[in-house]
Amino acid sequence: MHAPLCQACAIRNRAICADLDSEELSLLNSIGRQRRLRAGEQLLWEGDEAVLVANVVEGVLKLSTFTADGKEQILGLVYPSDFLGRPFGETTPYGVEALTDAHVCVFQRADFDRFAREHPRLEHKLLERTLAELDRTRRWMLLLGRMSAEQKLASFLLEMEDRMANGGCAPSFGEPKVWQLPLSRQQIADVLGLTIETVSRQFSRMKADGLIDLPSRREVVLLEREALTELSG
Amino acid sequence: MHAPLCQACAIRNRAICADLDSEELSLLNSIGRQRRLRAGEQLLWEGDEAVLVANVVEGVLKLSTFTADGKEQILGLVYPSDFLGRPFGETTPYGVEALTDAHVCVFQRADFDRFAREHPRLEHKLLERTLAELDRTRRWMLLLGRMSAEQKLASFLLEMEDRMANGGCAPSFGEPKVWQLPLSRQQIADVLGLTIETVSRQFSRMKADGLIDLPSRREVVLLEREALTELSG
DNA sequence: CGCCTCTTTGAAGAGGGTCAAGCGAGGTGG
DNA sequence: CCACCTCGCTTGACCCTCTTCAAAGAGGCG
Fold it and tell me: DSSP secondary structure string, A35-75?
């Protein structure tokens, strides 16, 4: 698919392009390019010149960085309709890697920057999104700085379920449902600022306590959302 | 000072207003209002309707939130020329309190939002600032999630000195200099996700090791920036 | 079936939290 | 001017959570 079609895009109404009229959209169309990523494939490298920005159409990606001694910290997860990359910046401040097979709509940063500056409506959307992302990131700081391992994992599972269930469109009601974890245990540890062993132990304990079920490594069921919410602090 | 004068503003060239022409500036002038805050005074309360946004002219303020069990986490520090508040949002996602006597230039959010939407240049500045703030916040996540108490405090002191020395304009060279900490030990603990005791112990150890000097509670000298940089990871 | 990777589990240890007491600078009142 | 009080900070002792190190278990895939 080298000829993207914004008009037919799955995330058309949720991404930053939502407010554009059809003329603007086809202009954007002309500078964008679809790209598929396999799980594990890297899209951007930390410290590189910031050449790309992108919209996520499908899949989950991680933003991450490393300490001097090589420990990874995942700085954020990016889902369909989220924007990704560093417009108006020199270098990419974090690495970006696909956690699942993914589908993104990429732009050369220079093209995108120019387009954005000429289309305030897009720039406004981008601003709203960035502000929302900043709020989300700050909430994550509370988790990293002040929560116990148990609280961290409970918070993580609850948020993840909301994200996975239905693209975040509606809160999850009714029967507990099985869903796929897009992250390995190690990656969950890197999100929460824990070690893989601690994550694994917390999973086991929650399962033993009947709060969750783990049909397989990558599958989860939240049996007791109430109790998990309680735990999450 | 109820009649602000943007043209004469100390942070005129560094704040988001930097790119405005004089006509725009006087319009902004007419919707803004100067306000002085005493150290400890609260400007915004978490969860309140988002009614205000502001530019910091002078002083240091903190953004903070609390866990369910009452532990505070400082989400960010705001310095002169920084922007503060949540434009285009319903509620204030964190509390804002002055750490030192401060001087801010406040706007009714509704007024500011309208002005911003009508002046893409301002909105663009705001976007650049928000993106930079997001990068800074993400770097802080690495600190919270992956660093030891010692690394945290070393990082904190180094960054703080850069901020305090000269408004962040130039890197600090030459002789070690005494400067004022705008935060109490407890507040430092809340920034770093530690307890006051741990912060205090780390201070004492660094002093004993000759890395820093503490002429009084609120004064610091970084004697060995090299070594501290090493420690900070 | 066997290998490889990811995950789980166990045991030991350290870093930081908690609780409690002591210190000291600044402010107040005698 | 000094004694006293207060509040923030420091220091000590102990304990708990999470990390570290090590080994065994469980899927997945050739």
Answer: EEE-TT-EEE-TTSB--EEEEEEES-EEEEEE-TTS-EEEE
Q: Which of A158-167, B169-178, B195-204 has the lowest mean pLDDT?
A: B169-178
Contact A131 B193 (CB under 8 A): no
Residues 6 or more apart from B50 whose CB is under 8 A from it?
B44, B85, B86, B87, B89, B90, B91, B92, B109
Could you tell me the residue ranges of all domains in chain A?
A: 6-143, 147-231
Q: What CATH number labels A147-231? A: 1.10.10.10
Query: For residue A167, is pLDDT > 90?
Result: no
d(CA B172, CA B161): 8
How many Å apart are A202 CA and C12 C1'?
19
Tell me the pLDDT band of A101, cut-offs 50, 70 and 90: very high
pLDDT confidence bin for B1, thresholds 50/70/90: very low
State the DSSP code for B90: S
Using 50, 70 and 90 to split pLDDT, how confident is the model at B170? low
Q: Angle, to 10 degrees, between the axis of helix A185-192 and the axis of helix A149-166?
A: 110
Indicate yes or no: CB of A117 within 8 angstroms of CB of B124.
Answer: yes
User: Which phi and psi angles does B29 have, rounded to 5°?
Assistant: -45, -45
Mean pLDDT on A60-71: 92
- Alpha helix segments (H runs only) across B32-119: 109-118
Q: Is the CB of A217 under 7 A from strand C?
A: yes
The helix (run of H) or strand (run of E) holding residue B136 is: helix B120-146
Closest Cα in chain A, distance from residue B2 (Å): 30
Closest CA to B83 of A119, A131, A136: A131
The mean pLDDT of chain B is 92
CATH 2.30.300.10 fits A6-143, yes or no: no
C-alpha pair distances (Å), A60 with each of A12, A85, A183: 17, 14, 9
What nucleotide is nearest A197 when CA is compared to C1'?
A: C8
Q: How far apart are CA B90 and CA B29, in angstroms?
A: 24
Residue with tokens 């220079």: A110
